[in-house]
Design a protein that fits this description.
Blueprint lengths: L16 H26 L19 H85 L18 H12 L4 E2 L8 E2 L1 H10 L9 H4 L4 E3 L9 E4 L7 E7 L2 E7 L3 E6 L7 E4 L2
Parallel strand pairs: 1-2
Antiparallel strand pairs: 3-8, 4-5, 4-8, 5-6, 6-7
Length: about 280
Protein backbone atom coordinates (compact mmCIF):
# COMPACT_ATOMS: atom_id res chain seq x y z
CA UNK A 1 0.00 0.00 0.00
CA UNK A 2 1.26 3.43 -0.80
CA UNK A 3 2.08 5.64 2.13
CA UNK A 4 0.06 8.53 0.61
CA UNK A 5 -3.00 6.56 -0.03
CA UNK A 6 -5.00 8.15 2.80
CA UNK A 7 -3.76 11.70 2.35
CA UNK A 8 -6.44 13.82 0.69
CA UNK A 9 -5.57 15.59 -2.45
CA UNK A 10 -5.15 19.38 -2.39
CA UNK A 11 -5.96 19.84 -6.01
CA UNK A 12 -8.82 22.24 -6.70
CA UNK A 13 -11.78 20.70 -8.38
CA UNK A 14 -12.47 21.60 -11.94
CA UNK A 15 -15.29 24.00 -12.56
CA UNK A 16 -17.93 23.05 -15.00
CA UNK A 17 -18.21 24.83 -18.32
CA UNK A 18 -21.65 26.10 -17.63
CA UNK A 19 -20.64 27.91 -14.47
CA UNK A 20 -17.71 29.48 -16.26
CA UNK A 21 -19.99 30.73 -19.02
CA UNK A 22 -22.35 32.34 -16.51
CA UNK A 23 -19.56 34.10 -14.75
CA UNK A 24 -18.14 35.36 -18.00
CA UNK A 25 -21.50 36.80 -19.00
CA UNK A 26 -21.85 38.60 -15.69
CA UNK A 27 -18.39 40.08 -15.93
CA UNK A 28 -19.07 41.26 -19.43
CA UNK A 29 -22.23 43.01 -18.37
CA UNK A 30 -20.45 44.81 -15.56
CA UNK A 31 -17.70 46.01 -17.86
CA UNK A 32 -20.24 47.23 -20.40
CA UNK A 33 -22.04 49.21 -17.75
CA UNK A 34 -18.83 50.84 -16.58
CA UNK A 35 -17.93 51.79 -20.12
CA UNK A 36 -21.27 53.49 -20.67
CA UNK A 37 -20.90 55.39 -17.40
CA UNK A 38 -17.53 56.64 -18.39
CA UNK A 39 -18.76 57.81 -21.74
CA UNK A 40 -21.64 59.63 -20.10
CA UNK A 41 -19.33 61.38 -17.70
CA UNK A 42 -17.10 62.50 -20.52
CA UNK A 43 -19.99 64.02 -22.44
CA UNK A 44 -20.92 67.54 -21.14
CA UNK A 45 -24.59 68.09 -20.31
CA UNK A 46 -26.77 70.86 -18.95
CA UNK A 47 -27.03 70.92 -15.20
CA UNK A 48 -30.24 69.52 -13.84
CA UNK A 49 -32.17 71.94 -11.73
CA UNK A 50 -33.12 70.54 -8.42
CA UNK A 51 -36.46 71.50 -6.80
CA UNK A 52 -37.50 71.03 -3.24
CA UNK A 53 -41.14 70.00 -2.52
CA UNK A 54 -42.58 71.38 0.63
CA UNK A 55 -44.60 68.72 2.34
CA UNK A 56 -47.61 69.86 4.39
CA UNK A 57 -47.11 69.77 8.07
CA UNK A 58 -49.51 67.26 9.50
CA UNK A 59 -50.89 67.56 12.99
CA UNK A 60 -50.04 64.22 14.28
CA UNK A 61 -52.02 64.69 17.53
CA UNK A 62 -55.06 63.09 15.90
CA UNK A 63 -55.76 60.95 18.94
CA UNK A 64 -56.13 64.04 21.12
CA UNK A 65 -58.49 65.71 18.58
CA UNK A 66 -60.62 62.59 18.30
CA UNK A 67 -60.75 62.25 22.08
CA UNK A 68 -61.78 65.91 22.44
CA UNK A 69 -64.53 65.49 19.82
CA UNK A 70 -65.84 62.34 21.49
CA UNK A 71 -65.81 64.04 24.88
CA UNK A 72 -67.68 67.07 23.51
CA UNK A 73 -70.26 64.85 21.80
CA UNK A 74 -70.74 62.92 25.03
CA UNK A 75 -71.20 66.16 26.97
CA UNK A 76 -73.77 67.42 24.43
CA UNK A 77 -75.65 64.13 24.65
CA UNK A 78 -75.61 64.25 28.42
CA UNK A 79 -76.79 67.88 28.42
CA UNK A 80 -79.63 67.00 26.04
CA UNK A 81 -80.62 64.11 28.29
CA UNK A 82 -80.58 66.37 31.35
CA UNK A 83 -82.70 68.98 29.52
CA UNK A 84 -85.17 66.29 28.51
CA UNK A 85 -85.39 65.01 32.04
CA UNK A 86 -85.87 68.53 33.42
CA UNK A 87 -88.61 69.22 30.87
CA UNK A 88 -90.33 65.98 31.82
CA UNK A 89 -90.11 66.84 35.52
CA UNK A 90 -91.42 70.35 34.86
CA UNK A 91 -94.34 69.01 32.86
CA UNK A 92 -95.08 66.47 35.57
CA UNK A 93 -94.95 69.21 38.21
CA UNK A 94 -97.37 71.38 36.22
CA UNK A 95 -99.76 68.48 35.77
CA UNK A 96 -99.58 67.65 39.47
CA UNK A 97 -100.13 71.27 40.48
CA UNK A 98 -103.16 71.55 38.19
CA UNK A 99 -104.64 68.37 39.66
CA UNK A 100 -104.06 69.61 43.20
CA UNK A 101 -105.62 72.99 42.39
CA UNK A 102 -108.68 71.29 40.88
CA UNK A 103 -109.02 69.01 43.91
CA UNK A 104 -108.67 71.97 46.28
CA UNK A 105 -111.35 73.88 44.35
CA UNK A 106 -113.71 70.92 44.46
CA UNK A 107 -113.11 70.50 48.20
CA UNK A 108 -113.72 74.20 48.79
CA UNK A 109 -116.94 74.07 46.76
CA UNK A 110 -118.15 71.01 48.67
CA UNK A 111 -117.35 72.73 51.96
CA UNK A 112 -119.18 75.89 50.87
CA UNK A 113 -122.20 73.85 49.77
CA UNK A 114 -122.24 71.99 53.07
CA UNK A 115 -122.00 75.26 55.02
CA UNK A 116 -124.78 76.82 52.93
CA UNK A 117 -126.96 73.75 53.45
CA UNK A 118 -126.34 73.88 57.20
CA UNK A 119 -127.16 77.60 57.25
CA UNK A 120 -130.38 77.06 55.28
CA UNK A 121 -131.37 74.27 57.65
CA UNK A 122 -130.65 76.48 60.66
CA UNK A 123 -132.71 79.30 59.11
CA UNK A 124 -135.63 76.94 58.48
CA UNK A 125 -135.45 75.65 62.03
CA UNK A 126 -135.31 79.15 63.47
CA UNK A 127 -138.26 80.18 61.31
CA UNK A 128 -140.21 77.14 62.45
CA UNK A 129 -139.39 77.97 66.08
CA UNK A 130 -140.54 81.56 65.64
CA UNK A 131 -143.75 80.40 63.98
CA UNK A 132 -144.35 77.93 66.82
CA UNK A 133 -143.80 80.59 69.45
CA UNK A 134 -146.06 82.97 67.55
CA UNK A 135 -148.81 80.34 67.41
CA UNK A 136 -148.43 79.67 71.12
CA UNK A 137 -148.61 83.35 71.96
CA UNK A 138 -151.65 83.78 69.74
CA UNK A 139 -153.36 80.85 71.46
CA UNK A 140 -152.61 82.26 74.90
CA UNK A 141 -153.83 85.68 73.86
CA UNK A 142 -157.05 84.20 72.53
CA UNK A 143 -157.67 82.39 75.78
CA UNK A 144 -156.93 85.53 77.75
CA UNK A 145 -159.27 87.57 75.57
CA UNK A 146 -162.10 85.07 75.83
CA UNK A 147 -161.82 85.02 79.63
CA UNK A 148 -161.91 88.80 79.99
CA UNK A 149 -165.28 90.01 81.44
CA UNK A 150 -167.28 92.43 79.35
CA UNK A 151 -164.52 92.73 76.78
CA UNK A 152 -165.80 93.04 73.22
CA UNK A 153 -162.36 93.37 71.78
CA UNK A 154 -158.88 92.20 72.62
CA UNK A 155 -157.09 95.54 72.76
CA UNK A 156 -153.45 95.02 73.59
CA UNK A 157 -153.62 91.28 72.92
CA UNK A 158 -152.97 91.45 69.19
CA UNK A 159 -156.22 89.61 68.43
CA UNK A 160 -159.15 91.37 66.76
CA UNK A 161 -162.48 90.44 65.22
CA UNK A 162 -162.39 89.03 61.69
CA UNK A 163 -162.06 91.61 58.95
CA UNK A 164 -165.19 92.59 57.08
CA UNK A 165 -166.03 94.85 54.15
CA UNK A 166 -163.15 96.86 52.74
CA UNK A 167 -160.76 95.57 55.45
CA UNK A 168 -161.50 91.98 54.39
CA UNK A 169 -160.75 92.80 50.75
CA UNK A 170 -157.41 94.32 51.75
CA UNK A 171 -156.44 91.45 54.06
CA UNK A 172 -157.49 88.73 51.63
CA UNK A 173 -155.53 90.30 48.79
CA UNK A 174 -152.41 90.71 50.96
CA UNK A 175 -152.52 87.09 52.13
CA UNK A 176 -153.00 85.87 48.54
CA UNK A 177 -149.63 87.39 47.63
CA UNK A 178 -147.66 85.45 50.27
CA UNK A 179 -144.84 83.48 48.63
CA UNK A 180 -144.35 85.88 45.72
CA UNK A 181 -141.03 87.58 45.07
CA UNK A 182 -139.78 90.84 46.51
CA UNK A 183 -138.47 93.14 43.78
CA UNK A 184 -137.47 96.73 44.42
CA UNK A 185 -139.99 98.95 42.61
CA UNK A 186 -142.38 96.03 42.02
CA UNK A 187 -146.11 96.78 41.98
CA UNK A 188 -147.44 93.35 40.92
CA UNK A 189 -148.84 91.14 39.90
CA UNK A 190 -145.93 88.63 40.22
CA UNK A 191 -143.66 90.68 42.49
CA UNK A 192 -143.87 93.65 44.85
CA UNK A 193 -141.85 95.84 47.13
CA UNK A 194 -143.28 96.81 50.53
CA UNK A 195 -145.15 99.98 49.50
CA UNK A 196 -146.17 98.45 46.16
CA UNK A 197 -147.96 95.63 48.04
CA UNK A 198 -149.77 98.06 50.39
CA UNK A 199 -150.86 100.26 47.48
CA UNK A 200 -152.14 97.25 45.48
CA UNK A 201 -154.02 95.85 48.51
CA UNK A 202 -155.81 99.14 49.17
CA UNK A 203 -156.69 99.39 45.51
CA UNK A 204 -158.92 96.29 46.06
CA UNK A 205 -161.03 98.40 48.43
CA UNK A 206 -161.21 101.30 45.96
CA UNK A 207 -158.74 103.41 47.93
CA UNK A 208 -155.84 105.16 46.21
CA UNK A 209 -152.68 105.47 48.30
CA UNK A 210 -149.38 107.25 47.57
CA UNK A 211 -146.68 105.03 46.05
CA UNK A 212 -143.87 105.51 48.58
CA UNK A 213 -143.70 104.18 52.15
CA UNK A 214 -142.90 107.64 53.57
CA UNK A 215 -146.19 109.09 52.27
CA UNK A 216 -148.18 105.95 53.19
CA UNK A 217 -147.04 106.23 56.83
CA UNK A 218 -148.61 109.71 56.94
CA UNK A 219 -151.97 108.64 55.49
CA UNK A 220 -155.08 108.41 57.68
CA UNK A 221 -154.86 108.73 61.46
CA UNK A 222 -152.29 107.36 63.85
CA UNK A 223 -153.38 104.39 66.01
CA UNK A 224 -151.79 102.56 68.93
CA UNK A 225 -150.20 99.17 68.32
CA UNK A 226 -152.40 97.89 71.14
CA UNK A 227 -155.59 98.86 69.25
CA UNK A 228 -154.87 97.51 65.79
CA UNK A 229 -157.58 96.42 63.38
CA UNK A 230 -157.23 94.34 60.18
CA UNK A 231 -156.26 96.58 57.27
CA UNK A 232 -154.24 99.06 59.34
CA UNK A 233 -150.94 100.14 57.80
CA UNK A 234 -147.87 99.34 59.92
CA UNK A 235 -144.67 101.32 59.45
CA UNK A 236 -141.04 101.11 60.58
CA UNK A 237 -139.11 104.31 61.21
CA UNK A 238 -140.62 107.72 61.87
CA UNK A 239 -144.08 108.62 60.62
CA UNK A 240 -143.69 110.57 57.40
CA UNK A 241 -140.19 109.20 56.82
CA UNK A 242 -140.78 105.46 57.23
CA UNK A 243 -138.41 103.06 55.46
CA UNK A 244 -140.80 100.06 55.49
CA UNK A 245 -144.56 99.39 55.56
CA UNK A 246 -146.84 96.33 55.85
CA UNK A 247 -150.52 95.44 56.42
CA UNK A 248 -151.95 94.21 59.72
CA UNK A 249 -154.13 91.16 58.94
CA UNK A 250 -155.39 90.36 62.47
CA UNK A 251 -154.48 87.63 64.92
CA UNK A 252 -151.31 89.48 65.87
CA UNK A 253 -149.86 89.01 62.37
CA UNK A 254 -148.91 91.20 59.43
CA UNK A 255 -148.24 90.58 55.73
CA UNK A 256 -145.38 92.42 54.09
CA UNK A 257 -142.89 92.30 51.27
CA UNK A 258 -139.86 92.02 53.51
CA UNK A 259 -136.72 91.62 51.38
CA UNK A 260 -135.32 89.70 48.35
CA UNK A 261 -134.44 86.71 50.54
CA UNK A 262 -137.84 86.14 52.15
CA UNK A 263 -140.17 87.64 49.55
CA UNK A 264 -143.75 88.28 50.68
CA UNK A 265 -144.46 86.61 54.04
CA UNK A 266 -146.93 86.60 56.91
CA UNK A 267 -145.23 87.12 60.28
CA UNK A 268 -146.13 87.78 63.91
CA UNK A 269 -145.70 91.35 65.17
CA UNK A 270 -143.04 90.04 67.56
CA UNK A 271 -140.95 88.87 64.60
CA UNK A 272 -140.21 92.49 63.68
CA UNK A 273 -142.11 94.92 65.88
CA UNK A 274 -143.26 97.99 63.93
CA UNK A 275 -142.72 101.55 65.10
CA UNK A 276 -146.31 102.65 64.64
CA UNK A 277 -149.54 102.29 62.63
CA UNK A 278 -152.06 104.40 60.74
CA UNK A 279 -155.71 103.73 59.90
CA UNK A 280 -157.07 104.78 56.52
CA UNK A 281 -160.44 102.96 56.52
Amino acid sequence: MSLTAHIPSHRKPRRSASKLAVRAGVAGGVLSTLAMAGTASATPSEPVAESTLEMPVLNMDLAADVSSSVTKAAENTRAAAVDGELNALEQSARTGAAAEAKKAKEDAQQKADAEQQAKDEADRKAEADRASRSTARTSLSSKSASSSEGSSSSEGSGVTAPATGSAAAIVNFARAQVGKAYVMGGTGPSSFDCSGLVQAAYRQAGISLPRMSQAQSSAGTSVSLSALQPGDILYWGSRGSAYHVAIYVGGGNFVGAQNPNTGIVERALSYDKPTGAVRVL
